[in-house]
Specification:
With about 475 residues, the protein is of the alpha/beta class. Helix content is about 20%, strand content about 30%. It folds into two domains: about 1-235, Spore Coat Polysaccharide Biosynthesis Protein SpsA, Chain A, CATH 3.90.550.10; about 245-450, Hexapeptide repeat proteins (UDP N-Acetylglucosamine Acyltransferase, domain 1). The longest helix has 21 residues, at about 240-260. The N and C termini lie far apart (about 105 Å). The protein binds uridine-diphosphate-N-acetylglucosamine (UD1) and calcium ion (CA). Uridine-diphosphate-N-acetylglucosamine binds next to strand 1, helix 4 and strand 10.
Length: about 475
């Protein structure tokens, strides 16, 4: 309890190292700008850090493509330090000294390329420091090649460690150690900075190794503890595109598991994609291969059909979205039905109980409550009142080749099939448009408008033609 209080009282500063290029990605783009689980890697690291510290206490060390990395971190208030030349993980900290040292508290160090790390684990790591100078995350790896190896103390029952030996500097015996340094640390800021200047670039790589801090602090009489995690995958850094795909899979799986625990049914979850910021209400059912993306918020009791894509949209309760439907930047109110095979391009509002059927495209369209556009229509820049019926094949001609124009249709109007509505145009409440009409002029409320050639009958014409041969 006492320790818990201490954790609450001592502020946390987080530094995220993200200056490297990541050569093994074979990319022109810096590694932390690649995406997994619906976000860039740097956004994942920042999102985790934000659960530990306010933005003013978070600092990202940038180098390669620093401007793009800064731009990818969209939370205001987060600090950046530029590491022009990457002279090692220790050097990355030292270039941030001026910003970081005055912040004090606990100094949590993590990498920008480890998107799977959980905030709970970082909290346990901070807790682990107790009265020592710091703690770090370790894991037992089947193949620890490339990782720093953990040299434990003589007493095998405590958590203290003596040193980290980097792969390149390790003896054959040390290389057999399977306990690896995950590169995630928590130090008492004051002790860290008191000794950070003692890091030397006296190793085969000629780099300033952050890992040297363990021996440096021990030489000064302080202890460092290891927190060994059971699932090493959580702390894995992404080095290549195979690991990127694996991280993507694990992050997606995490999001879906959380949704399922919160009451959402997901059919064939291995095929479904849901972005991290999406929220979905209980008893909603998501069909196979659906993608729910961006900032979408979806209510309860909805149904999303197979292969539908919903992005940055607000979906009310009990909305039914049929299979193969696309909804972007739109609002769909309670109990509306969309699809199958519908496309809501952007800027649409579909009110309560309205229907949008197959092969109907909406763009900046407002469909009033209970209105229906059930088949094969294009409704763009259009306002439609409540309980109107838009017949199959209706097209709003909103574009004259230069400008976009509005079509306004009142409530309880009936637009006959295959109507062509040439905007700008206003159709009054309760008006009727005959099927196949080309409507160019305003139609008053409750009127019938016909805009088509009158039918002509020529009796016997076809029979005579046949006789002629
Ligand atoms: C580091 C650790 C190693 C650990 C491993 C875990 C050191 C010396 N070694 O090795 O013990 O097992 O991480 O993944 O720390 N970075 C900078 N600036 C630099 C150098 C690195 O910002 O000058 C960033 C990189 O972008 C990367 C992270 O720090 O995100 C780790 O750097 P990397 O070179 O991959 O360290 P490793 O050799 O893997
Ligand atoms: Ca690495």
């Amino acid at each position: 309890m006492e320790r818990h209080n201490k954790l609450m009282q001592t502020p946390v500063t987080v530094v995220i190292l993200a200056a490297g290029l990541g050569t093994r990605m074979k990319s022109r783009k810096a590694k932390v700008l690649h995406r997994a689980g619906g976000r860039t890697l740097i956004e994942h690291a920042v999102a985790t850090a934000l659960q530990l510290a306010p933005p003013e206490r978070i600092c990202v060390v940038v180098g390669h493509q620093g401007d793009q990395v800064r731009a990818a971190v969209r939370t205001p208030g987060i600090g950046f330090v530029e590491q022009k030349e990457q002279k090692g993980t220790g050097h990355a900290l030292l270039v941030g000294r001026e910003v970081l040292e005055p912040l004090g508290g606990y100094l949590v160090i993590m990498y920008g390329d480890g998107p799977l790390l959980r905030v709970e684990t970082l909290r346990r790591l901070i807790d682990k420091v107790e009265d020592d100078a710091g703690a770090l995350l370790t894991a037992l790896l089947d193949d620890p090649t490339g990782y720093g190896r953990i040299i434990r103390g003589d007493a095998c029952d405590d958590d203290s460690i003596q040193a980290i030996v980097e792969q390149k500097a390790a003896t054959p015996e040390q290389l057999r150690i399977r306990e690896a340094n995950m590169g995630i640390y928590c130090y008492r800021s004051e002790l860290f900075w008191k000794h950070a200047g003692e890091i030397r670039a006296n190793n085969p790589a000629g780099e300033y190794y952050l890992t040297d801090m363990v021996e440096i602090l021990r030489a000064a009489g302080h202890g460092i503890r290891a927190l060994r995690i059971d699932d090493a995958r959580e702390a894995l850094g992404i080095n290549n595109r195979i690991e990127l795909a694996e991280a993507d899979r694990l992050l997606r799986e995490r999001k879906l598991r959380q949704l399922m625990l919160d009451g959402v049914t997901i059919e064939k979850p291995e095929t479904v994609t849901v972005d991290p910021d999406v929220s979905i209400g209980a008893d909603t059912i998501i069909g196979p291969f659906a993608q729910i993306l961006g900032k979408t918020r979806m209510g309860e009791d909805c149904r999303v059909g197979a292969c539908s894509i919903i992005e940055d949209s607000e979906i009310g309760d009990a909305v039914e979205i049929g299979p193969f439907t696309f909804v972007r930047a739109s609002q769909v109110e309670r109990a509306a039905q969309i699809g199958p095979f519908a496309r809501l391009r952007f800027g649409n509002l579909v009110e309560e109980g309205a229907h949008v059927g197959n092969f109907v495209e909406l763009k900046k369209a407002h469909l009033g409550a209970g209105s229906k556009a059930n088949h094969l229509a294009y409704l763009g820049d259009t306002e439609i009142g409540a309980r109107s019926n838009i017949g199959a094949g209706t097209i709003t001609c909103n574009y004259d080749g230069m400008h976009k124009h509005q079509t306004i249709i009142g409530k309880q109007a009936f637009v006959g099939s295959n109507s062509t509505l040439v905007a700008p145009l206003e159709i009054g409440d309760g008006a009727y448009l005959g099927a196949g009409s080309v409507i160019t002029d305003a139609v008053p409320p409750d009127a019938l408008a016909l805009g088509r050639a009158r039918q002509v009958i020529k009796p016997g014409w076809a029979a005579k033609r046949k006789q002629r041969g």
